Amino acid sequence: MSAFKAYDIRGIYDKDFNCDTVYKIGFFLKELFDAKEIAVCFDKRTSSPEIYENLKKGITDSGADVHSFGLSTTPMSYYIAANKGYKTTVMITASHNPKEYNGLKISGPGAVPVGQESGLLKLKEMVENITPVPCDKKGEEKNFNIKDEYILYMKKKLKKVSNLNISIDCSSGMAGLVAREIFGKKANIILDELDGNFPAHSPNPLEEKARKMIIKEVKENKSDIGIIFDGDADRVMFIDNKGRFISPDLMINVLAYALIENERERVICDIRSSKSCSDYIKLLGGEPIIWKVGHVFAKSKLRETGALYGGELAGHYYFKEFSYCDSGILAAIYVLNTVAEWKRDNIRLSDFIDEFSSWCSSGEINFKTDKKEEIIKRAEEDFKKEHYIKFYDFDGIRFDFDDWWFNFRMSNTEPYLRLVLEAKNKELMEEKLKFIQDKYIKN
Fold it and tell me: 361 forms bridges with which residues in the sheet?
């Protein structure tokens, strides 16, 4: 059952999981979560209709009802889970993965994510070891639509941004379902026609190739900002007015400007985030909290600490007001509100981002190795002998020094050791990166 991951069920459909797996998942949801009615949403991937039909059959054979909300963004499924009283909500999606992938993301009451410890491990055991026996009284399918309600919810948060020239790339993904109605006719929106084959580019905006079209649009249209969503619109990334890709962790700072109003407001930053994020949040009177990578961990920490919002290097932004869930569109709205305000004061997005350019990041670098644990252990032993400022021992290791820091962590889903390193200038970053690679990766 290689499709069962730490945070969701995901893999290549008909290879890592199939219709039988999906049927069993649907069948056991009722028993596992005591759910008589299960909400189901899906994206536009080519395998989503087949997965939905098998999931529906499993659910109804168990005696539970399927409440189908049809085509949705993943954040729409969170909105349903948080506001419509369901014990279980399932989103059929593989988010930013290539077209041959698909999966299921399960939310509990209040949109609390279901991870390994909160149900996925038990669900995997049931799927592997128990043969479903359909009940005599089968459940029913009922259709619902919250698209208009959701659009209205988002539009109320968008302020006066008519002074902005905006370019948006929906990546042929689910943001296209709602983007024009939320952001308006004036916005230059491309690839908003839903297409599960993702013909123009990958649905993963972290890939440089996937950003070429939006960068071109920003430059040709002289846009104040470019916005690109991933396949299911839970992630968003930004291009500044000069056509430069903005590292997603730096947008935590833009959101800090937009959202922090009171002292001691807590903000979650993932362990890979720039040191400038912690520094800027403190400058505004906030309290940065460094935490693990992954939506289950981030949402849990937000709930535990009552944090105002959180952000990740991967382009996820989580909001207390949105039931502690991530929403690419909500993040884009707050960024647009802020950039419009700045423009009225003759400040450009690039001006703000350049304030943090003193820190130079390697970005996240992946190394394929079968010695992940050994490398992390050796690095921890070595650097504990140094004069570090802070040491984090969750999600791999992170050591902070006066003018640089690094993080080693293992991928939960792929055979990679991941490295992020940041320093006060490019020369120091390159020097430390070479040192780390020579000592731990090449040996």
Answer: 422
Q: Cα(19)–Cα(58) distance, rounded to whole angstroms?
A: 10
Token pair of 347, please? 């400040």
Instruction: Report the catalytic residues.
Output: 95
- Look at residue 173 and give its three-state secondary structure: coil
Give strand pairing partners of 10: 103
With cut-offs at 50, 70 and 90, classify the pLDDT of residue 31. Answer: very high
* Segment 99-157, tens digit of pLDDT: 999 999 999 999 999 988 899 999 999 999 999 999 999 999 999 999 999 999 999 99
Question: Class of 360-441 per CATH?
Answer: alpha beta
- 3-state DSSP assignment of residue 35: coil
Does the fold of domain 165-246 match that of domain 9-146?
A: yes
Instruction: Classify the C-alpha dihedral 10-13-18-19 as positive or negative.
Output: positive
Q: Which three-class secondary structure state does DSSP give residue 368?
A: strand
Answer yes or no: is pLDDT of 227 > 70.
yes
Judged against a pLDDT cut of 90, whether residue 1 lies above it is answered with: no
Report the CATH architecture of 9-146. 3-Layer(aba) Sandwich (3.40)
Structure tokens at 386: 């140094």
In 3D space, the residue among 112, 106, 105, 134 whose CA is nearest the CA of residue 32 turns out to be 106
Residue 149: CB atoms within 10 Å = 12
